[in-house]
Specification:
single chain, Neurolysin, domain 3, mainly alpha
Length: 505
């Protein structure tokens, strides 16, 4: 039996190498497509993606690999902890792939080579009709995909949810969102009746892109970003990507009439990047590198963006640097003015620019739409009307156009249905992690040093180092000594915004 296991391990190690090489190629193609690729390249690029995706399908479904993984799965107690966990995850993925016809797998992969570029053009032109045929086909292919994978325990949309956050289905998400609706929505309505008084004249100025980039680099230094292992560029929709711990890249989008947008996009993406860089480098040669899940990844980006990035302690050292770069715009503005601005609650249109308190309501809109789409309750043709209706219902805002409505996010163009709920869940994870971190660290004192180094180190030890070698719920419990409790999120938000808005609750 030992010889059989060793042969299976040898086959699996070869597969790991080939799989990582494929991921490397896809990472470079994806990065280039969203940052620098010329508009007319995508048709030719799609033909190459078709060839690569065919090879990927054949790699993941080869009889030799399937047999080797089955052998290792049956003998996983004899493997080291990381490999044993990885084999369980890989077997689950292979079991799915072999049920999906190759032509469907290849068609979706090929379609996604151009879909995000089509979405970007549609968004810029405020033209949903341009993107609609592509979106329809993506959803059709995903529904076919789900039809092959249904089991008595997992069906439809729940399959997608489980892929982004293992163990979470509509049952768990409905319970989570019901908690937010019951305890947060009344509080949001109360806050929305009050106005913060401060000098907001700086919001009337223009902020040159080059100067915004200078300040983004200051933020990178404060969050201890390793420039030898990563870089920052620009894209229509900010994102983070990479390959292993030594090549981590993120983007920012700059609006000259909205300085805060780029600032908090940068902090958010740096949260993702910090996570990727602080995974144990030994996992780079395995399939267990990177974040444990989408929600765990979002917990890190939302932690840095909101809990750290919108705190007074973080800005005490950074605000003078902001005034140095934008002296005219901030001439008569003090730190308290700026803090009120970045923590102001407004029911707004754009998810990525939403305040911390109303953000989960934006996620509820998307979650409700995704559930309805995959339950065949609505069609793609109806999406703009339904989007606008839910935005009015949850946030009380009128949507003026599709660019600021149904077309604002890139996710559906990448077939990432099931992803959005992880944003709200990640925010809740972040609050629970923060509660635990405060027991060990004096966060306010640490931030006076203009560096998050000690915070980064705590997260590295408690969360980041594990990469994807453990399940997210297991990592959360190791870090906080508790199972997931959404009440920490509710308590954190109510305490913070009661103080800012002087509300008794």
């Amino acid at each position: 039996m030992e010889e059989t296991i060793n042969i299976a391990l040898s086959i699996y190690k070869d597969y790991q190498k080939q799989n990582l090489a494929n991921k490397f190629v896809n990472f470079l193609i994806g990065w280039d497509s969203q940052t620098e690729a010329p508009n007319d390249c995508f048709e030719a690029r799609g033909r190459q993606i078709e060839v690569l995706s065919t090879a990927t399908y054949k790699l993941n479904t080869s009889p030799e690999l399937v047999k080797a993984v089955q052998t290792l799965y049956e003998n996983r107690t004899s493997l080291n902890e990381i490999t044993a966990h990885e084999i369980v995850v890989v077997k689950k993925n292979i079991d799915k792939i072999i049920k999906v016809p190759m032509e469907e797998f290849v068609e979706l992969s090929t379609l996604l080579a151009s879909s995000q570029n089509i979405w970007a053009k549609a968004k810029v032109e405020n033209n949903f009709e341009l993107f609609k045929p592509t979106l329809k086909r993506i959803i059709e292919l995903l529904k076919l995909y789900l039809s092959h994978l249904e089991t008595p325990k997992l069906k439809g949309y729940n399959i997608l949810l489980d892929e982004y956050e293992p163990g979470f289905t509509t049952k768990e998400y409905d319970e989570f969102f019901d908690t937010l609706k019951k305890e947060l929505v009344p509080f949001v309505k109360k806050v929305a009746t009050k106005a913060l008084q401060y000098n907001h004249s700086f919001t009337n100025f223009k902020y040159p892109k080059d100067d915004q980039k200078k300040f983004a680099k200051k933020i990178m230094d404060t969050l201890c970003f390793n420039h030898n292992k990563g870089l920052m560029k620009e894209s229509e929709h900010p994102f983070t990507t990479g390959f292993g711990t030594s090549d981590v890249r993120f983007t920012v989008h700059y609006h000259e009439d909205n300085l805060a947008s780029a600032i908090f996009s940068a902090i958010h993406e740096l949260g993702h990047a910090t996570y990727e860089m602080q995974v144990d480098p030994a996992l780079d040669v395995t399939l267990s590198g990177g974040g444990a899940s989408l929600a765990m990844h979002e917990s890190q980006s939302r932690f840095y963006e909101n809990i750290i990035g919108r705190s007074p302690a973080f800005w005490k050292s950074l605000f003078p640097k902001l005034k140095e770069i934008f002296p005219k715009q901030f001439k008569s503005i003090n730190l308290n003015d700026f803090l009120k601005h970045i923590n102001e609650v407004k029911c707004s249109l754009i998810r990525t620019e939403a305040d911390e308190l109303t953000y989960p309501l934006h996620i509820m809109v998307r979650y409700d739409i995704e559930k309805a789409l995959f339950n065949n309750e609505i069609t793609v043709d109806e999406l703009p009307v339904i989007w606008n209706k839910l935005m009015k219902e949850y946030l009380g805002v009128e949507v003026p156009n599709n660019k600021e409505g149904i077309l604002q996010d890139i996710h559906w163009a990448g077939a990432a249905f099931g992803y959005f709920p992880t944003y709200a869940l990640g925010s809740a994870y972040a609050a629970q992690i923060y509660h635990s971190m405060k027991k060990d660290l004096n966060i306010k004192e640490i931030l006076k040093s203009s560096s998050t180094k000690e915070i980064n180190e705590w997260l590295k030890e408690k969360i980041h180092c594990y990469g994807a070698a453990k399940y997210p719920q297991e990592i959360l419990k190791l870090a906080t000594k508790e199972k997931f409790k959404p009440q920490y999120y509710v308590t954190y938000l109510i305490k913070k915004y009661s103080k800012i808005y002087d509300i008794k609750w």
